[in-house]
Amino acid sequence: MQTQNWKASAKNILKAELTRKGIDYETLATKLNELGVEENYNSINTKINRGAFTFQFFLQCMKAIGVDDIRLS
Predict the structure, then answer these.
(1) Long-range interactions of 47-55: CB distance < 8 A, separation 24+
(2) H/E/C letters for each residue in the chain?
(3) What is the pTM of this model?
(4) Which residue of 16, 26, 53, 68 has the fewest C-beta atoms within 10 A of its own C-beta?
(5) Which tens digits make up the pLDDT trace of 40-72?
């Protein structure tokens, strides 16, 4: 049975969507704050780079950057 690194997958999907939209962590922080989600560059950088963030954070990021569809493969 093949094991999957779920943290790496989550991190890679989020980073890919940010790259597609041309959004850096500073801009993401601003967009999240506009939604009422208090984040800053450092907290975003830590969460994403360690790949350990909640699904709620993931959804908030997707909403903030205007992503409606996500490809898992």
Answers:
(1) 48/11, 48/14, 48/15, 49/11, 50/7, 50/11, 51/7, 51/8, 51/10, 51/11, 52/7, 53/10, 53/14
(2) CCCCCHHHHHHHHHHHHHHHHCCCHHHHHHHHHHCCCCCCHHHHHHHHHHCCCCHHHHHHHHHHHCCCCCCCC
(3) 0.89
(4) 68
(5) 999 999 999 998 899 999 999 999 999 999 888
- Chain position carrying tokens 């963030």: 53
Q: Copy the structure tokens of residue 18.
A: 């940010």
- Show the tokens assigned to 9: 């997958």
CB of 49 closer than 8 Å to CB of 11: yes
